[in-house]
Amino acid sequence: MKVLLSIWLTAAALVAAPPSFRGYPASAGAERQKLEEAARAIPDPPRIREYIRRMSAAPHHAGSPGSKAVAEYALGLLRGFGLDARIEEFEALLPTPLHRSVELIEPKSLRAAMREPALAEDRSSGDPGQLDTFNSYSADGDVTAPVVYVNYGIPADYEELARMRVDVKGRIVLARYGASWRGTKAKVAAEQGAVGVLIYSDPREDGYFAGDVYPKGPFRPKDGVQRGSVMDMPLYPGDPLSPGWASEKGSKRLSREEAPTIMNIPVAPISYADALPILEALEGPVAPERWRGALPVTYHIGPGPAKVRLRVEHDWSIKPVYNVVARIPGAQWPDQWILYGNHHDAWVNGAADPCSGAAALLETARTAGQMLRRGWKPKRTLIFALWDAEEYGLIGSTEWAEKYAPELDRKAVVYFNTDMNTKGSLGAGGSAVLEEFLTEVLRDVRAPGKAKSLLQAAEEQRGKQDAGPAFRVAPAGSGSDYTAFLHHLGVSSLNLAFGDGDTAGIYHSIYDSFDWFERFGDPDYLHGRAMAQLMATSLLRMADAPLLPFEFPRLARAIQEYLTDLEKLPGADKVDLAAARRELDLLAREAKACEQRYQQAAARLASASQDALTKANESLMRTERSFLRAQGLPGREWMKNHLYAPGAYTGYSAKTLPGVREAVEAGRWDEASRHAAVLAEVFRAIRRQMQEAGQALARI
Ligand SMILES: [Zn+2]
Fold first, then answer.
1. What's the number of domains the chain is made of?
2. Separation of 405 CA from ligand 1 center, angstroms?
3. Ligand 1 midpoint to CA 365 (Å)
4. 1 occurs within a structural domain
5. pLDDT tens digit string along 227-249?
6. How far apart (Å, rounded) are the C-alpha atoms in residues 429 and 371?
7. Range of 456's domain?
8. DSSP 467
9. CA of residue 421 to ligand 1 center, whole Å
10. Last-in-domain residue among 544, 570, 599
């Protein structure tokens, strides 16, 4: 395909021939191009600005009246666009803080402010209804103990502490944000015997060390705090009381004590202004150089003499969750669903997270509505979803996916996800079977504010030395709403975002506001428009393709990279991966054969029967399902995808071939060997699925 693509690029430069579209007959090129260009002309920056302004006008955390108001606003818009939209209600345990205090008791007495002050330069920073700074699903507790500084609080940091003979048992750990999902920091601290956790934002990561702080620049001011969930999401996301089933009015529930994803020790996030006196009061060994942040102190490890009292208490009530879902039924294949979701709840006003992504989704939905008015009818069903309670732990999307799991298993073709979307370059995570499709889409969408395509922009960024494909889809870990689709249900997914890292400084604070966004987020809303254009192109193309544009050789290559990576892990030689390797070679061969059949079928599309196409597409879209095993990953049954999962001890970042990889990393050799056998089975199942797809393609 790479060869064909470059031939086209040359041809396009000379005679502007219509591009080829994977899964479409060659003759369809000119007409498709016209249709998609018409759609791409619709998204409008001033409208995107207005959606963001309205949605971020007041605090709207899940379970609050503000969140319901945003859901209703989105519902009204979607209906106004001519779509069949409704609110689907669920329920979840959504704790809110009743009491939070952090007091330095020794060597001097000082109470942490735990308050983000309003700024004259930011109109919403003094809004009523702001959720206090807290970590959701922290345990209630009142603990007093000496403090130990644990760097990022990842497992490697505790190994270093052990070498320094510093124990955290019975102590309160002070960890900085960064390097892992915050829930992992709490989990690891609890496993190490700590009685409490303080997580602070060091200025090195997203404060003055990174650049000017807000309001002068985009970075975190001294009192800014990163709220966030410390649920054990790598175990399972969603309502902690309903693992694997939808939480609705009257449905069964675990008790809070039974729910394994709720943290068992108290955790609180603090600002660097509040962390500084604690760090100043620590003695003991000086922290290794790479542990030091950018505060004006010598970083010591402790324990003590700084002693802290940490007290948190929550209202543990169950609250409603409002997902907004809109559908456009497919004219030809109504039972093949293309889904696109973004959350609508924020920790506070959330102009960047999530309103920037939600606004691009709304503008894509308006584009689809306009195209319907002009007579376009999607062949497959399109579903737009604005999820609630993502911040608490991907709750709206997970409960919805669990409710419709059997139907999604039969019908879901692809799940597209967005979240934050700000100026910067495009990043994509998710399913390798969609890499080729996305590359073609990027070829046809203009980079924001530039006279080149997103694909060309990606090629330039990649640099000349790298001989690989221009654009790669990285394996997806967790941290947004695709998890239930990708890791639990095996629905091929893409998570897309523009961004440059400058949003980190206001992330999950009251300063993630419309005023911040207008100055630093996406001031001209061109990235919002580019995302809507990218998504409109993706949806139209995926909805109408006679043959679904999945592609297997890139999948085979990706799995080969995962396995090669795995074989390089220290100790991996103790695990017999020969059978998995053999199966993978067969899989790679099958992927090539299937691609040949795909190209042959694509050449016969003009005369293809509807029935033969339906069957081929159903088996193509089931490829990702074959990555699943009913029993899930070791110790986490909910995570069923054996090619990738959020790392049990990293969270945000993905672990590929996690069954074997995590066992090897932890030195659990029996488990690693058992899972090497499972891996061979998974590879065989994927190959069989490809075989079935190949046979169905041959009948076209
Ligand atoms: Zn978000």
1. 3
2. 23
3. 19
4. no
5. 999 999 999 999 999 999 999 99
6. 28
7. 25-90+323-544
8. -
9. 10
10. 544
